[in-house]
Amino acid sequence: MKVVNILSVLLVSSSISACTGGSDFSDLQAYMDEVRARPKGSIEPLPKFLPYEAFTYSAAALRSPFQPPVKIDMARQQKGSKDIKPDETRVRQFLEGFNIESFEMVGTLANDGLVFGLVRGAGGVHRVKVGDYLGRNFGHIVAIDEAKIEVVEIVPDGEGGWLERPRSITLKERS
């Protein structure tokens, strides 16, 4: 039994000495020498960042640069009439709460000789007929055909009168 213990101690000690003894650390020593030889303070300082300056867009109320400028010839400008004015007492329809530019015609429906126009806007597709109102400027639908919806708007002329302005919403072709 004593011999077995002695042999096992010799075997363990020889395996431990084989792991640590005879190892060559020359590559590690060479790397450490290279790191120590580097000059001190060779790290570049961080760049200086300018503080953020907030920008306020002040041209929101001006004309869009993507629309052509409106040239008004004061001599040829239409004068409003005191006879034309919108009916302020009637109940406004749902589609009058939106700009007319936000609508596009997408089709027509016909039923028993009555023609309806289909307009997309205001969150969906809506069916309109002659006599309905559309847009914020008291737009009154006067005609509907397969290619367009004719609307007459009543707009102020800036001098206390009102003008009738014809507009049309053309059919949007599938793109």
Describe this structure in words.
The chain has a domain at 94-170: SH3 type barrels. The chain has 2 helices and 7 strands. The strands form 2 sheets. It has a 4-stranded antiparallel beta sheet with strand order 4-5-6-7, with no helix packed on it. A 3-stranded antiparallel beta sheet has the order 1-2-3, with no helix packed on it. It is elongated. The protein has helices spanning 2-20, 26-37; strands spanning 104-111, 114-121, 124-128, 133-134, 139-144, 148-156, 162-170. The protein is α+β, with helices and mostly antiparallel strands and 175 residues long.
Descriptive keywords:
elongated; 4-stranded antiparallel β-sheet; 2 helices; SH3 type barrels; 7 strands; 3-stranded antiparallel β-sheet; 175 residues; alpha+beta
Q: Which CATH architecture of the domain at 94-170 would you pick? A: Roll
CATH topology call of the domain at 94-170: SH3 type barrels
How many DSSP helices? Answer: 2
The side-by-side strand order for the widest beta sheet comes to: 4-5-6-7
- Report the uncertain regions: none
Number of strands: 7
Helix content: 10-25%
What series of H and E elements makes up the topology?
HHEEEEEEE
- Mean pLDDT figure: 81
Percentage of residues in DSSP E strands: 25-35%
Q: Rg from C-alpha positions?
A: 43 Å
Structural class: alpha+beta
What is the global morphology?
A: elongated
Separation of the first and last Cα atoms: 96 Å
Query: Major sheet: size, sense and barrel closure?
Result: 4 strands, antiparallel
By CATH reckoning, the class of the domain at 94-170 would read: Mainly Beta
Signal peptide: 1-18
Organism: Aquipseudomonas ullengensis
Protein name: Type 4a pilus biogenesis lipoprotein PilP
Keywords: Lipoprotein, Signal
